[in-house]
Amino acid sequence: MERRLFVLQRLSAMLLALLVFIHLGLILFAVRDGLSAAEILGRTQGNILWATFYGLFVLLVAIHAPIGVRKVLQEWTGLPASTINSVCWGFALLLLVLGFRAVAAVV
Amino acid sequence: MREAERRGNLYEFGTLSKRLPRFARNDGLWHKDIFLKPIIMNPLRNHKSYIAAIGHRLSGIALAIFLPFHFLLLGTALEGAEGLDAALAFTDSPLVKIAEWGLVMLLALHLLFGLRVLALEFTNWPNHAETLSKWVLPSLVTSVFVGIIFLVHAF
Lengths: 107, 155
Description:
The complex is a heterodimer of chains A (107) and B (155).
Chain A: H1 2-30, H2 37-44, H3 48-76, H4 81-106
Helix pairs in contact in A: 1-3, 3-4
Chain B: H1 3-6, H2 47-75, H3 80-90, H4 94-122, H5 128-133, H6 136-154
């Protein structure tokens, strides 16, 4: 279990590194003229490439963040393992649902 | 002292663990007076590695807390452009801009410190722990630079 999570964490990190790099670039580019719904939606709506990009981004983040949070909770809190696992499963589901909802909203 | 620390391992992941060169092994002086004891990375003499480990972790926590709110804001576009514009109006406040500025820097920092972790674990060039400590300061500087670009554009 631990090893599987470790591998998932590292594999998602490798892919996320690339996606975050693009995301940061886009943030710096998009923020130049101020953010507006028209500007954001004009870029994303009906664009299969951005839909795939953000869909993959959400999926990877929903894997990567809860595993990281789980490790921190394990090491920095005295919470029981079962509580930590439940919290992190809940967090993963929250990110998946809210994330895909956000992607659906903008594409 | 825990077994893995005594053996001088950097990580406790069974066969994936890396051994540290002798100079970098924990001498037992570090963790007595340090507030956040770095357990994922056993205490090193190398101060920069410690900063990287803590920085990577704290930035990760901050980003994890931020993510649901980020998704919620974008989700307002379900009500069309008006919904998203109303939500974006909230981000016009200087306080929110400053929070965003912090998050952009933390994202850059988490990325750069994360690359360091991957390099540490998946490469095995000589003295790579020491070599990678040279990655820490440029990472910090780059993140601040990214933050400055964001600030200049955001205001």
